[in-house]
Amino acid sequence: MADKSRSQSTISGCGMFVAHLPAGYILSKLVIKRDAVYRRWLLGVALVCSVLPDMDLAYFYLVDQRRHAHHGYITHTPAFWLAISAVLSLGLLACRKRDWLIFVAIGLLAIFLHLIMDTVAADIRWLYPFSDRSFNLVEVPALYQPWYLNFVFHWTSWIEVAICLLAASVFGWECLRAKQGQDKYSPPPTSQ
Ligand SMILES: [Zn+2]
Fold this sequence. Notes:
This protein is mainly α.
């Protein structure tokens, strides 16, 4: 686990590029039962929440003018999403919508998966607000320009490729099963 005090020869601020959504899809396949009542809606919430923390990129580009790494924003801290989830849960309980708590649970799970994946190569403040110390697993050396090539050429990008391939395989398998299910229940062609 790397400390946040880093040398000039390493960079931070990217985390994962493209694997968040595929990872959210794999997560949904692991935790949502096939006969779940709100299955499609749960899948939708898992996919949206798997990329939700990165919505702060709008603030990063439009307001902050790229002055601070967006992984340092409060939207990339577990405490922020725990607080939001607590408020939503209390609201649902107050409205007697206990069944809908499953949406909060799967959303929070997808967001934590996002933060765990970002922790591979970006600084995430897991202990905020108790500590401002940030954590990451791997220091990415600054060798190339533009900056994102450092992440593309680093071995951690293979984790992203593997996640994307796995998600594509699961999706393909699901489509195949669905088609086989349709063929099974469709009537045989009538002979002339
Ligand atoms: Zn992120």
